[in-house]
Design brief:
flat
């Protein structure tokens, strides 16, 4: 769960970089990148997504 578009863009870019260098994409490891829309919404949105299981990691700047 990312705070906003900047964090999403950074992680997508890093994922692309990894794939270009013959590494596994995030999705191969069950990682999904979600945009919370604002830092104040992260906690609420993490609680709303039970399908994410117990491994939830917020990314904020």
């Amino acid at each position: 769960m990312c705070e906003g578009a900047t964090e999403v863009g950074f992680l997508r870019g890093f994922d692309d970089y990894q794939v270009e260098n013959k590494k596994d994409p995030f999705s191969f490891h069950g990682v999904a990148i979600l945009n919370a829309g604002a830092g104040s919404k992260v906690k609420k949105k993490l609680k709303r997504h039970p399908f994410l299981g117990s491994s939830k990691s917020p990314v904020m700047s």
